[in-house]
Amino acid sequence: MSLLVSGWLALDEIKTPAGAVEGSLGGSATFAVLAASLFTDVRLLAVIGDDFPEHELRKLEGRRIDMEGVVTADGETSRWGASYHADMNERDTLYTVLGVNESWEPRLPSGWKDSRTAFMAAGHPTVQRDVLGMLDDPRSTVIDTIKLFIDNDRDELRKTMRVADYIAFNEGEARELTGMVSVAAAAATLLEQGVRSAIIKLGEYGAMLKSPTDHFVAAGYPLDEVIDPTGAGDAFAGGFSGYLDAAETIDDATVRRAMIYASAVASFTVEGFGPSRLLEVTREELDARYREFRDLTHFEVDDRG
Amino acid sequence: MSLLVSGWLALDEIKTPAGAVEGSLGGSATFAVLAASLFTDVRLLAVIGDDFPEHELRKLEGRRIDMEGVVTADGETSRWGASYHADMNERDTLYTVLGVNESWEPRLPSGWKDSRTAFMAAGHPTVQRDVLGMLDDPRSTVIDTIKLFIDNDRDELRKTMRVADYIAFNEGEARELTGMVSVAAAAATLLEQGVRSAIIKLGEYGAMLKSPTDHFVAAGYPLDEVIDPTGAGDAFAGGFSGYLDAAETIDDATVRRAMIYASAVASFTVEGFGPSRLLEVTREELDARYREFRDLTHFEVDDRG
Q1: Smallest CA–CA separation between B17 and chain A, in Å?
Q2: Cβ distance A77 to A48 under 8 Å?
């Protein structure tokens, strides 16, 4: 088993009511590989600029992450800045610097074609599709995106959405792509548009999955405090993909468990700035939070119900 | 068994992206008694003005609702007008006319002191506490409120919050009363402030319950279309109270089932304008939706989780 993760490594500037960081290890791929590596062996395919600080990159070392696919290109590393509002459900993106990701042409290290699972974290949809096309016969493929690509590259994104087994988009993105106000209707519309399975991430309120054979709703984990929501969605999708990769077989019950593990890893992510909490969380903590999800949400079938 | 419900009967003017109604049967008590009467015998304590249209009131007839406590006073019936935004999670209150509720002094019909359960739907907190004080020894008491009373009568509301067994407030109200951004932290803070059990209603995203012995999170029902969110919170709390009243014994598992039945009845409420859908829903439909909640949210304990 092994999971290929492709996406951005970036340097983030983040302001939340709880504080601020700058030049911090970030980008969709960072959160995804850290989450996924709690479940399985991960292969990271990404590009950084020659300005990427060595000590930030070293944070990814000593884990189940194969860094052979991380190449350094001449130029500037991708950068992202955001400022969160008081209630943390809204943020202003201050800037997105594409940097070396603007012209990246990914090449797969030899031996990576056999990846059992692939997660294309937010990145250009054409690049996502190119990378998926390099794989022999992946069992499961998952893609994420961000508003930038919905706005600028919607046609390419729609093509990529149809070749993946799962899309993992957030509520606002699903609404924008379908014009539907209701999350359930948006998910159903995505399936009508040719998406195989749609995961809609609801931030603090949980997540929903709609597939041809299943409809699942996961409640949000009731966190006492959110320090920084950055990367929670990437960690969710990375954790989901990692859990699927590690699973012997995949049926609807497996996918539901993957959704809960994904929620669990996302809930840890927001407990610290950037990837700081994700860098220290253990599989044991994750398993405990999974059980806690069960305790928090379980209810009995009623005599009549 | 019997559930006393006290609150407002009003005439509503509602505008949503799906349409508009005016002079429609509404008010917190309307939604609460219709929801509750699906589970148990309900006693309605409320005041209307001499302008209340007979045909609107007749909509409550022929159900498990004892109308002996509905008195007609000289003056104007309470009125409420609201306009919902495109995503239905936000609304502008156009006006609130207190009318005869401004000076209502409720009197309990003889024989109603023995009510096993009481739900004080949104109304003046002093009136809520007065009515609760008229009962002999209710097994469970539940109160709701609205922003109007948080803003204008906060001290009285805080007193009433401490005498009820459950408060059922929405997310924004819980935040405003505690100053906490996190819903979980708001619920915990309410308990520290002397509330016995706090139910936080999350609208389309479900609900949470925090008590000294339990913490439960209910996911939202994935509706394809919301026609009118008005009264969903009242129906939730009315359904919750009705289910508790009908239960032989009450333990944490009972309360969790009540939360899911409350979610189910609230999900029907928003499928029509005002109480129109609630007026026609059957117990069989409700039981089926309860089972659907179970199917939508169930997941197995993992080997490791």
Answers
A1: 11
A2: yes
